[in-house]
Write a structure and sequence with these properties.
Structural class: mainly alpha
Oligomer: single chain
Order of helices and strands: HHHHHHHHHHHHH
Helix content: 55-70%
Mean pLDDT: 68
Number of helices: 13
Number of domains: 3
Distance between the termini: 94 Å
Shape: flat
Number of strands: 0
């Protein structure tokens, strides 16, 4: 038995024995029986230190055995186990406190309303339809981890479960209210479709919500009339015309020729820009860019006219901090 100022002896497993000295009190019969069972189970003799800690902390049998195993580990194993438990705790906190963004909640609610006005024969099919849409359009709804992280899937399904009955009650009340007011069936269905149906692709609604959040965080330059410039609308209209003309298969010769023509026109424009910015003597020697007649194979790379010029451009010298010639 070590004295008051005497250091504790190192034991075989030794991790807890360095910090705790044995108790001077006499063990009870129950404690002696427990120690005998531990010895027969192959637990080291210094388990009395662990037993004292377990009694002080009120640990159960499973926790006691875990403490014995932890005491028998090497320092490297203890560090690895502690790190793994810390990571598991952090992951548990993330899963416990993860919430959906308000834009994503708005999109999920709009999807429920959208499928409520669809010709379905059961309200349960609305939930199944929205869940199936979320599984196949994870990027469009802004949830790329829906099929990978169980936490995200559980939160989304829980939100759909809570919103489904509320929207159903509102939808049914609107139906009975229209019946009591003797609203014609055509007008009623048209009003429902206008109020609930998602008339634009879902990804546009997500981008609209995200753009509003980004505008508050970073500041997006808004057009003077606070409206759309019309670029994407014109682009989608042109793309729809091309799809109607050449089909959805983008590997056909028509689509390949369309891409080659765009690249060829871009190369001609870039060559013209290079020759316009080059010195006059380079323009006299190089001549105008030759038109492209067919395909990408006929397009020649632009010559590095600026690198071969005898005198640098005044704008280039000023940008480097040197006086102009």
């Amino acid at each position: 038995m070590p004295k008051a100022n005497e250091p504790v002896q190192q034991t075989s497993s030794g991790y807890l024995a360095e910090r705790y000295s044995p108790s001077p009190r006499i063990e009870s019969r129950r404690e002696i029986e427990v120690r005998a069972v531990e010895v027969n189970a192959g637990i080291p003799q210094d388990a009395s230190f662990i037993k004292e800690i377990a009694n002080a902390e009120g640990l159960n049998a499973v926790q006691r055995m875990a403490l014995h195993k932890f005491n028998n580990m090497t320092p490297e194993q203890r560090m690895l186990k502690t790190q793994a438990e810390t990571l598991a705790c952090n992951l548990d906190l993330v899963r416990r406190y993860y919430v959906l963004d308000k834009p994503v909640e708005k999109v999920l609610t709009d999807l429920l309303k959208h499928y409520f006005v669809k010709p379905l024969n059961s309200y349960k099919r609305v939930y199944n339809a929205v869940e199936g849409y979320c599984q196949t359009h994870v990027m469009q709804i802004g949830l790329p981890l829906y099929n990978k992280e169980p936490c995200v899937c559980a939160i989304v399904n829980k939100y759909l479960t809570t919103q489904h009955p509320e929207i159903k009650i509102t939808f049914r009340n609107a139906i009975f209210d229209s019946i009591s007011k003797r609203i014609p069936l055509g007008s009623m269905t048209a009003s429902f479709a206008h109020a609930h149906r998602v008339g634009v692709p879902v990804y546009k609604k997500v981008m609209e919500k995200k753009a509003a959040a980004a505008a508050q965080a970073q500041g997006i330059k808004v057009s003077p009339d606070r409206g759309s410039t019309g670029f994407w609308e014109a682009f989608e209209e042109e793309l729809q015309l091309l799809v109607a003309k050449m089909g959805h298969n983008r590997r056909t010769s028509e689509w390949n020729q369309w891409e080659e023509d765009i690249i060829a026109r871009d190369c001609i424009a870039q060559d013209a820009i290079v020759l316009t910015n080059a010195p006059q003597e380079m323009m006299d020697t190089e001549g105008p860019a030759q038109p492209v007649h067919s395909g990408i194979s006929d397009v020649q790379p632009a010559q590095p006219a600026l690198e071969s010029a005898t005198e640098p451009l005044p704008s280039a010298t000023r940008s480097l901090g040197q006086p102009a010639a």
